[in-house]
């Protein structure tokens, strides 16, 4: 009986711990969502305060520190949150068994749809990419470099790119990534209801990437 009671108590503790963990995750998510909400419009992440974030999230300022060491730590978490799922989705889009032209269209459509579905995250990225905390800027650059490196590795098997050296593959991947990022920033400035303009930006991005591939076919890597 004593053993059973101890086991039951352990189970209750485990359940309680699970509920606490769930509440902690909900509060952490609420703080991140509050920050994204506050930077809508003209405000930047560096212009909002810890107290504002806590108030919108519905917690006392002291509770903020149970989840983040400060606003910079919150910013880094938002960068990670913005790119984590994207990396997986883009790898899946690029690995689809499609002709190169269809693969490009599929990859562009995947990224631009993801950025539209997660608009607050990408407004945050667009605003903080060149301003605000240096730690956040560097984190964004690291994520973009990772994305570029992954794309370069995926481009290597393309028949017309097999003669490219590593530096040239990364350069080409960088051109593609910068084109997609530029298209995303244009879309963020467009009313979500203006589907014709969004479609035009999609088409232009696809054409620009096709031109990059056409130019790459004539490129000769130097030894």
From TrEMBL:
Gene Ontology molecular-function annotations: DNA binding
Region (Disordered): 1-20
Residue ranges flagged as DNA-binding region: 49-68
Gene3D superfamilies: Homeodomain-like, Tetracycline Repressor, domain 2
Source organism per UniProt: Stagnimonas aquatica
Protein name per Swiss-Prot or TrEMBL: TetR family transcriptional regulator
Sorted UniProt keywords: DNA-binding, Transcription, Transcription regulation
Keyword Transcription regulation on entry: yes
InterPro entries reported for this sequence: DesT_TetR_C, Homeodomain-like_sf, HTH_TetR, HTH_transcr_repressor_FabR
HTH tetR-type domain ranges (all copies): 25-86
